[in-house]
Design brief:
CATH class of the largest domain in chain B: Mainly Alpha
CATH architecture of chain A: 2-Layer Sandwich
Order of helices and strands of chain A: EHEEEHEEHEEHHEHEH
Largest sheet of chain B: none
CATH superfamily of the largest domain in chain B: Formate dehydrogenase/DMSO reductase domain
Number of strands of chain B: 0
Number of strands of chain A: 10
Shape of chain B: globular
Helix content of chain B: over 70%
Number of domains of chain B: 2
CATH topology of the largest domain in chain B: Formate dehydrogenase/DMSO reductase fold
Number of helices of chain B: 15
Radius of gyration of chain B: 21 Å
Mean pLDDT of chain A: 90
Chains: A alpha/beta (about 270), B mainly alpha (about 375), C alpha/beta (about 525)
Distance between the termini of chain B: 11 Å
Largest sheet of chain A: 3 strands, mixed
Number of helices of chain A: 7
Order of helices and strands of chain B: HHHHHHHHHHHHHHH
Oligomer: heterotrimer
Structural class of chain B: mainly alpha
Structural class of chain A: alpha/beta
Low-confidence stretches of chain A: 262-267
Mean pLDDT of chain B: 86
Number of domains of chain A: 1
Strand content of chain B: under 5%
Chain lengths: ~270, ~375, ~525
């Protein structure tokens, strides 16, 4: 059963407790380059979650909205399927975890992630990739992730993804203020972090052109076919090789007989 | 003949061009040391928006594709038995070997935990295309080293020469099978970038384009190489042979063009060509320079002219480099939301790898019977 | 076929089995080890990212915190120091009735009344005032500028605590000496403007009571900028009840660039007006768009009445930065013209103090008689209770019913009654900070969380100052009387209105007040 978090952006007041909790729990340093809050908030190697500020127009009024950003923990994670050492993996709880000692640092996960979540320690001599791991140790001990547990306005609700989806549908059906869309229900094949908003998601920096088909599906099909195709290709090559070899040999022998002369043929 | 070679003295002629190459290599070594000490952030212009930059685009993507000349020629000569191409076989395969070794160095420099390079052997990410690429490139490099063993043992460790000669057929078949797989897989790496890579380049069959282009760039590479080698070593390959090679490449190229256009139409993205944005111009430029002009040369009377064949080779190679840079850099720019230009140090390191490759090639050609072995035989 | 091959075929059954078995085992072990077989990851079960294998020092109790806008003019927070203890949210919600007193989603603002109580409650000092001492230092270094400073009633009973002195000790003269040592060109006392506020506010109250101005009763005090913003947010319908008189700081500021400049022959544009306040909301107040009355009088559009507000804590830091030995400073006295004060002005910093000062002068204004002794120790409005009430008998007028509220959470019930029209009072004093300005958000953090003992010590100190004063009535302040005579005219007059009165802004559109609280 996939664990997930339902984020109701209408309840966020931008206090930033979540990113402080994240820093405290994961013992990440505070970054000087990448702010954790404000309009320039940016996920970075040391920022696994940030709260980005948006001043937008809603019903002809200015509205202040905050968006918590972190790994979406996809149902079909591109990063994990891109990782060639299994340093990134999806656990049975649906959490995408990362094990840095397996990582080679190729950054294919960063290129592959549709949400551009994994970040890299560019300033280090032996850098690794970093990203939110949903406080995996807490999750397996039946605790909420640290950011969820600390939120003073209960923006986030932690639970089984299926139940959260039911809850989310209930909320958007019972309140006309919500945009009728659960971000993460189908995006990239579905994510374990689900978002509700009263402002169009596109205005809050969410990528809205993400295909519902998980990108990992393309490669899994490709990868399942590759060994068979590769082996078949090898057989074909061998076949042609020998056919041609004997054809050439026969031709050469015929010629040899015809010419009745010496001369090697080492084709 | 073998005895003749083994009695030669080791030599390495120093010419002005080689001095320049040595200088570039040394500059590269210094920068490489700096990169290894400080990490990637200072030496390169890569960042979180641009996790892959010039090194992946040029060192790896272009490097592997250009080094593909080896498997393409091996396929034509040893499997299809087009014997007249034999004179270029060793040259092409040597370039290929050096190319792959440099790709490996380039990759090691690009990854963060380079000392962890062996991890994929024990911790399999078998869902990853990159895993296949990694295994294939490693395997192929080993195979190529063994293949080179045949040349090497003509001079050093001669008692093993027969052994290498014996295993050559197997090596050659494996050495064609594996690159076919990973050339395609390098393209398949981008299968995941649906929505991230610009639609003109992204395609569900992008692996096929990578495979085909890596195949037709083989003949082009051989043409360029042979004209360079003919200058450096006074060794000439018959125009007829080259033309034949180019024609084979040309047919694959034509198929590539047709499939590409059909793919664009089938996906409904053909309209992107006329968008008039930077991507559309670059895509058209890539196709015109790298495909259409070479095709015209290939299938016209120009193909009888050595100089034009060289133009074919250069343009095809440029077109391929153009294509790979477009996929890795230009095509991803709109999604990244920022621009990426490689840092000077990034480019110098890449160039130094090329320079090192060229120096090794020159050294090997001077000291081993790479070029002209078969021609000697034919002369006999 | 060679001999060797024949031999192989001959005796090969055992070796064939051996080889097959060996291959199967190797392949099997490899697939198991790499996890190929069951599609699972390699490394086995119970696998954790290595970072989580090390016990962290995550605090046991984490409770979230208040939101602070990055553009908040009063307070700021250093995230690195935050431990998520939740104290700020506790005081903001429970004591000041701001946090969670509005519905979500937010509108276009993070509601904040800038009271700064969170800075007092924050155990790690992650939340602090927005530091402006650098700007003040910069102004002090500029020879061309005339830097005037005013000090609030409460800072003198708090500043000493920053230098290890007894809690609540009155360091008025040392504070003046320190400010002079820092290089301020003129040190004035906001107590002066406190007396002035009483003149205007009591005058307004009298006029409301006798019906000379058409404005509702009860009249609310307006000297606390936190309270004013609270009222603007949550009770826009009661803004008419707010006294139009400015706060003492703004009165002093407006006069510094007009009256003071004129009397001292100074160019108002070259005056920098600094205020030392026990309050973080004063930073917000000074920045309020409308507080540039001196611009209308002088014609210089860009000047502000008060340029910089420093909290008591910032002043202490300033003194420490400049290596001034505060505890051994010789005493000094305020510069004349706008510094004289009565005991009534002195107790402005105490909850109930404004009320006590106002009724003393109000009594005089209504009856033209010296108020009775009871009004010099008005015990019903003294003390730390959240809501205090008093009924005064005023000859020939009747009963004057007053109330004193401290801490915005305590205001809700009172304001509800006002809104419902069943409020018996004529005059209500509101102070956002519990205990009044002496426990303001800019005061030294002498007890964490602020304790009643500290508050009481500071309060006693101010009441003692009142008792010791020769004059204990605002309308006896000679400098004020002189100023009215030569500059302002009369209380509530035209120029007084321009310089000393203000208007309020309905801020209810910036939040959705919770209905249950209304």
């Amino acid at each position: 059963m996939s664990k997930g978090v339902l984020v109701d952006l209408t309840k966020c007041i931008g206090c930033g407790s979540c990113y402080v909790a994240c820093k405290l729990y994961n013992e990440n340093k505070w970054s000087d380059k990448a702010p954790v809050n404000g309009k320039a908030a940016k996920l970075a190697d040391e920022n696994w979650t940030v709260v980005k500020e948006y001043n937008i127009s809603r019903d002809n009024c200015n509205a202040l909205r905050f968006v918590k950003k972190q790994c979406f923990h996809c149902e079909h994670p591109s990063c994990a399927s891109a990782c060639f050492t299994s340093a990134l993996r999806k656990t049975e709880e649906g959490v995408i975890v990362y094990r840095s000692n397996l990582c080679v640092g190729c950054r294919y996960c960063m290129v592959a992630c549709p949400f551009e979540i994994p970040k890299f320690e560019w300033g280090k001599a032996f850098p690794v990739v970093t990203k939110c791991m949903m406080c995996y140790f807490r999750v397996i001990n039946n605790e909420k992730p640290s950011c969820v547990s600390v939120c003073p306005t209960q923006v986030m609700q932690y639970g089984d993804r299926d139940e959260l989806l039911v809850e989310a549908k209930l909320r958007i059906d019972s309140n006309s203020a919500y945009i009728k869309h659960i971000y993460g229900e189908n995006e990239a094949g579905g994510t374990n972090w689900l978002y509700l908003s009263d402002v169009p998601f596109a205005q809050l920096g969410f990528k809205t052109d993400i295909s519902d088909k998980p990108a990992a599906a393309y490669t899994s099909r490709y990868m399942s076919l590759t060994p068979i195709l590769g082996a078949a290709w090898g057989l074909v090559l061998t076949g042609i090789y020998f056919i041609n070899k004997y054809r050439k040999k026969n031709a050469a022998e015929k010629q040899m007989k015809a010419n009745d002369s010496e001369g090697g043929n080492n084709a | 003949m073998l005895n003749d070679i083994s009695k030669q003295k080791w030599s390495f002629t120093i010419t002005p061009v080689r001095l320049i190459l040595i200088a570039i290599s040394l500059a590269g070594f210094a920068l490489i040391a700096y990169r290894l000490i400080t990490g990637l952030g200072i030496v390169t212009n890569m960042n979180d928006e641009w996790p892959w930059g010039f090194w992946i685009a040029f060192d790896v993507m272009c490097g592997v594709a250009l080094a593909g000349g080896g498997y393409a020629t091996a396929f034509l000569i040893y499997v299809l038995r087009i014997d007249c191409l034999k004179p270029v076989a060793r040259g092409a395969m040597l370039t290929s070997l050096i190319g792959y070794l440099l790709v490996a160095v380039g990759l090691l420099l690009d990854v963060g935990q380079w000392f962890n390079f062996w991890r994929p052997f024990v911790s399999w990410g078998h869902s990853s295309v990159l895993f296949e690429v990694f295994l294939c490139i490693t395997a192929y490099t080993v195979v190529q080293i063994l293949e080179f063993g045949e040349i090497f043992t003509e001079r050093v460790g001669k008692k093993y020469h027969n052994f290498f000669k014996k295993i050559m057929p197997a090596l050659i078949i494996i050495g064609i099978m594996i690159p076919t797989m990973h050339q395609a897989s390098l393209g398949a790496l981008y299968l995941m970038m649906d929505g991230k890579l610009y639609p003109l380049w992204w395609s569900p069959i992008i692996f096929l384009f990578f495979l085909m282009s890596s195949f037709f760039v083989g003949p082009a590479m051989v043409v360029v190489e042979s004209s360079l080698a003919s200058k450096a070593f006074g060794h000439k390959i018959e125009t007829g042979v080259l033309k034949k090679l180019v024609r084979i490449g040309g047919w694959v190229m034509l198929a590539y063009l047709v499939i590409k256009v059909c793919d664009l139409i089938a996906r409904g993205k053909i309209g992107y060509l006329t968008d008039g944005n930077i991507e559309s111009y670059l895509f058209i430029a890539e196709i015109v320079i790298g495909i259409i002009i070479p095709l015209i040369i290939c299938f016209s009377r120009l193909a009888n002219n050595r100089a034009w064949l060289a133009v074919f080779g250069v343009l095809t190679n440029l077109g391929l480099i153009f294509n790979r840079l477009n996929v890795v850099v230009t095509g991803m720019a709109r999604n990244a939301g920022s621009l990426y230009l490689p840092a000077i140090s990034e480019v110098i390191i890449s160039l130094s790898l090329v320079a090192i490759g060229a120096l090794v090639y020159l050294f090997v050609c001077e000291n081993f019977p790479v070029l002209g072995k078969e021609t000697h035989k034919y002369a006999n | 076929m060679s001999e060797r091959e024949e031999r192989e075929i001959d005796g090969s059954r055992r070796s064939f089995l051996k080889k097959t078995l060996g291959t199967c085992l190797t392949v099997g072990a490899a697939t198991a080890a790499t996890g190929c077989s069951d599609g699972n990851v390699s490394g086995g079960e119970g696998w954790l990212p290595e970072q989580y294998n090390i016990p962290g020092n995550y605090p046991v109790q984490v409770r979230g915190r208040i939101p602070i806008d990055r553009g908040n003019p009063s307070i700021t927070r250093d995230d690195r120091k935050c431990i998520l203890c939740g104290q700020c949210a506790e005081v903001c919600e429970k004591s000041e009735a701001v946090l969670f007193n509005y519905e979500l989603p937010l509108k276009d603002d993070i509601p904040c009344i800038h009271c700064g109580q969170c800075t007092l409650w924050c155990p790690t000092a992650a939340i602090t005032e927005r530091d402006e001492k650098e700007s003040v230092l910069h102004a002090l270094e500029n020879e061309n500028l005339h830097v005037v400073v005013q000090t609030a009633p409460s800072t003198r009973v708090g500043l000493g605590e920053e230098f290890g002195l007894t809690i609540g000790i009155n360091v008025e003269s040392r504070q003046v000496a320190a400010l002079k040592a820092l290089g301020f060109d003129s040190v004035l006392d906001t107590n002066f403007a406190a007396d002035l506020t009483i003149m205007e506010e009591a005058n307004e109250l009298v006029k409301r009571v006798v019906g000379q101005i058409k404005a509702p009763l009860p009249q609310f005090t307006s000297c606390c900028p936190g309270w004013v913003k609270f009222c603007e947010y949550f009770y826009p319908d009661l803004l008419e009840n707010l006294s139009s008189a400015k706060s003492p700081m703004q009165m002093q500021g407006a006069l510094i660039k007009t009256y003071y400049a004129k009397e001292r022959n100074l160019d108002p544009q070259k005056i920098v007006s600094v205020a030392i306040m026990p309050c973080t909301a004063k930073k917000f107040e000074a920045a309020r768009h409308e507080f540039n009355s001196s611009a209308y009088i002088t014609g210089y559009e860009n000047i502000r009445d008060v340029d910089y507000v420093l909290t008591t804590r910032e002043l202490a830091r300033l003194i420490k930065i400049k290596n001034i030995d505060f505890n051994n400073l010789p005493s000094a006295s305020y510069d004349p013209l706008m510094s004289e004060y009565s005991g009534a002005g002195a107790i402005f910093g105490v909850t109930g103090g404004v009320m006590e000062a106002a009724v003393r002068t109000g009594y005089y204004m209504l009856t033209e008689q010296r108020p009775p002794d009871a009004l010099f120790n008005l015990t019903p409005v003294r003390g730390l209770q959240g809501v205090k009430e008093a009924v005064l008998q005023i000859p020939n007028v009747g009963e004057l019913r007053v109330a004193v509220v401290t801490g915005m959470a305590n205001s809700r019930e009172v304001l509800k009654r006002v809104r419902n029209g069943d409020a018996p009072w004529h005059f209500i004093e509101f102070m956002a900070c519990y205990g009044g300005c002496i426990s303001g958000g800019g005061q030294p953090r002498s007890a964490l969380p602020p304790s009643d003992a500290v508050r009481a010590a500071r309060i006693n100190s101010l009441y003692t100052a009142d008792e010791k004063s020769v004059k204990r009535l605002s309308h006896e302040n000679d400098e004020i009387l002189e100023m009215y005579k030569i500059y302002l005219g009369e209380p509530g007059g035209e120029l007084a209105h321009k310089l000393l009165h203000t208007h309020y802004i309905d801020r209810s559109m910036h939040l959705t007040a919770k209905k249950a609280l209304a």
